Amino acid sequence: MKQAETGVFRRWANGLAALLVLATVAPGARAQDALTLADGVHVFIGDTGEPSPANRGRVGNIGFVVGDSGTVMINAGASYRHGRALLAAAERVGGKPVVLVVITQPVQEFVMGAAAFADQGIPVLAHRASAELIAARCENCLHNLRQVLGEDEMAGSRVQPPDRQIEASTTIDAGGRRLALIHPGWASSPGDLVVRDLHSGVIFAGTLVSVGRVPELRDGDPTGWRDALVDLQALARAQGERIVPGYGPPVPAAALDTVRDYIADTEARVRSLFDAGTPLSAIVHAAHLPRYAGWAMYEPVHGRNVQQRYLALERATLAE
């Protein structure tokens, strides 16, 4: 076979293998089921539902990037046990020790495994605002996860504050890999970080992006979030890069349109109902959005989003 034909076949085979992995990864997939996106860039695809005994709390995507001398984890998992499994799997797949964990947002499925890395002397990095939220509320997260998943699954889990904090976008060298840590401002949370591998261009967006799953608006600023998605799309389109969402499979830039639409549609619908005098008791039913009803977590999360946006409008009105 000619060299050019061999290259084409190899790319085709690798692409087919990636599609097959995406199609067959089960909810709550085992930690060792890593999807390879580019040379040295991998992701564990997690469940898109709520934490449950069935998925062991392994909700959301966890990435890792392998350099010449070490591996950087992108988020830490939902429990000490999960963190240990991720650490072992990443080092087995990449063949290099984990040297850093980057937390993209302060959500329980990304932070509760951090202690497993810290106990191995691996530093944990986050934006300062995320570190503050972790300290303020993650004891409650830990309590709730113990109630849902049980003491055995959560054994050894504890709140591990990040020991490295940043205030703004920066570029780091870790494990022989150069990574851009992008803080888009207050978007899905006040301490959002987007991780971009500068070698491959793969972008890890965390909770800024959900594919086929209703995003939690609790910590978000709707305007800042929409602006951040526009900027993220522009970056990805300019470089032809793939985006790894916090939930769901990796996607091209165009897929971010629906996330932005959901945020805008929810905000517009709640504002319209609020201005019409709809009471809080009726807001969830009245703000039903059929376009998104088939998304994962629609029933519990959309209702919470609607109530939170209503109360935010109420507070703004009272402050005038």
Tell me about this structure.
The protein has one domain: Metallo-beta-lactamase, Chain A, CATH 3.60.15. 42% of the residues lie in helices and 18% in strands. It is built from 9 helices and 12 strands. A hairpin with a 2-residue loop joins strand 1 (34-38) and strand 2 (41-44). The chain starts with a helix and ends with a helix. The relative contact order is 0.11. The model is unreliable at 1-31 (pLDDT under 50).
N- to C-terminal distance: 74 Å
Overall mean confidence score, pLDDT: 90
Low-confidence stretches: 1-31
- Give the ordered list of helices and strands: HEEEEHEHHEHEEEEEHEHHH
Largest sheet: 7 strands, mixed
The strand count comes to 12
Strand order of the largest sheet: 1-2-3-4-5-6-7
Tell me, what is the CATH class? Alpha Beta
Q: Can you name the CATH architecture?
A: 4-Layer Sandwich
Gross morphology: globular
Q: Identify the CATH homologous superfamily.
A: Ribonuclease Z/Hydroxyacylglutathione hydrolase-like
Helix count, DSSP H or I runs of 4 or more residues: 9
Question: β content, as a range?
Answer: 15-25%
